[in-house]
Amino acid sequence: MKFTVSRDTLVELLTNVVGAVEKRHTSKILENVLLSVYNGQLRVVGTDLEIELSAAINIQVDEEGAVTAPARKLLDITKALPAESFILIEHHAEDARLCIKGGRSRFELATLPAKDFPELDEIPLDTEIHIVESQFKRLLDKTSFCMANQDVRYYLNGLLLDIESGGISTVATDGHRLALCELNDDGIQVTDRSAIIVPRKGALELSRILESSSDVMLKVQLSHNHIRVEKDNVRFTSKLIDGKYPDYQAAVPSATTVSVQLDRVVFRDTLARVAILSNEKFRGIRLRLDAGVMTLMSNNPEQEMAEEEIDINYSGDVFEIGFNVSYVLDAVNHLEGEMIDFDFTSASASALLSSSDDTGVRYVVMPIRL
Fold first, then answer.
1. Looking at the domain covering 252-365, what would its CATH class be?
2. Contact of 204 with 144, CB cutoff 8 Å
3. In what order do the strands lie in the sheet with 217-222?
4. Which of 25, 73, 242, 300 could form a disulfide with 30 if both were Cys (CB 3.0 to 4.6 A apart)?
5. Are domains 2-116 and 252-365 of this chain identical in fold?
6. Residues ≥6 apart with Cβ < 8 Å to 262
């Protein structure tokens, strides 16, 4: 195998796929990327057996072939070479080394045979939709922070994609809070509704390779146990979590009795200040609504306390409720717009956060006892 490629192109290809590669793995080949050069095309593939990322580009090929090399070392070497330079990469079948030459630098990396690399087999993908890249990234980013991490309820360690004709919803919950983002798009037409759970790492990697400013159309393909997303020369494939996701519609409060409008930035900054003296373990704060004023209070086991008031348009009875301040802050930080709506039903029922400037986005936070 022998080919020449521009340094910037190789950095871009490796950056796109390296997220799928484990930093340390019992199987050494899963720390490697596959480099294959055939028919005038360089293809780079990384996998952890759950997700696979591949990127390809047309280049000048001297000798065809394929080999695997350590992903992060190869990326670090490529990044360290001068920008806009060209890199010669060479590997001969009888040699276990990959030779990388750039300028006056020369590197030799250990390799493993390409035939041992676990590429995903061809998948029968039965549903296909097209969606604008920036819209798909928004669906992921507005919800993915609520995914559980290593929860015994394995189906919560991922992101629900609920696809039906005319729209897509993404949902994530860890049992204490829930994020929902809905997109209405008449261009999305499917024969059957699909509700699939993308694993946590897959959802985060997919969001990483998408751009919020891009209006490119993505091709999204689904089967009963895989999702594939194609963007230009990059292809993302992930296994799905096999499980039934909770009924998220039932968790979103449909009718609330108390509604408060807040300046998003003022509320965010107040939460951050009051949180300083909250209990480090439970992160609890108390909200009290009284005529024209919302009071935020926190205390901790050292008998320290914080209190701050915000002027609000409220004229009902005194209402108190407790929350984990981190969950409320996360929701406020992910909402857009100047004003947000904070809706309550009772001190023991979930609260709803939304913004009229952030259509289709709703956050549900469970209260805590203080």
1. alpha beta
2. yes
3. 65-70, 32-38, 41-47, 51-58, 234-239, 226-231, 217-222, 127-132
4. 25
5. yes
6. 294, 310, 312, 339, 340, 341, 342
Q: Is the dihedral of CA 31, 37, 38, 39 positive or negative?
A: positive
Residue 216: pLDDT above 90? yes
Output the six-digit token pair for 79. 């990044």
Please return the burial class of 121, using the count of CB atoms within 10 Å of its CB with bins 0-12, 13-18 and 19+.
exposed
Question: Which tens digits make up the pLDDT trace of 27-71?
Answer: 999 999 999 999 999 999 999 999 999 999 999 899 999 999 999
Domain ranges for the chain:
2-116, 127-250, 252-365
CATH number, domain 2-116: 3.10.150.10
Fold observed for domain 127-250: DNA Polymerase III; Chain A, domain 2 (3.10.150)
- DSSP characters over 214-225: --PEEEEEE-SS
Token pair for 66: 């394929």
**Two tokens, residue 50:** 């759950």
User: What's the pLDDT score for residue 161?
Assistant: 97
Instruction: Tell me: pLDDT of 121 over 90.
Output: no
| Strand ranges for 177-326 from DSSP E | 177-184, 194-199, 217-222, 226-231, 234-239, 258-263, 284-290, 293-299, 305-311, 319-324
Q: What is the C-alpha separation between 144 and 154, in angstroms, rounded? A: 15
Written as six digits, the tokens of 277 are: 């003296």
- Two structure tokens written together for 54: 């591949």
At 153-197, the pLDDT tens digits run: 999 999 999 999 999 999 999 999 999 999 999 999 999 999 999
The yes-or-no verdict on residue 199 having pLDDT over 90 is: yes
Taking the alpha carbons at both ends of the chain, their separation in whole angstroms is: 66
Does 203 or 121 have the greater pLDDT score?
Answer: 203
Residue 76 CB partners (closer than 8 Å, separation 6+): none
237, two tokens: 């494939």
Determine the Cα–Cα distance for residues 33 and 50; give it in Å rounded to an integer: 15
DSSP string, 306-358: EEEEEE----SS-EEEEEEHHHHHHHHHH--SSEEEEEES-TTS-EEEE-TTS
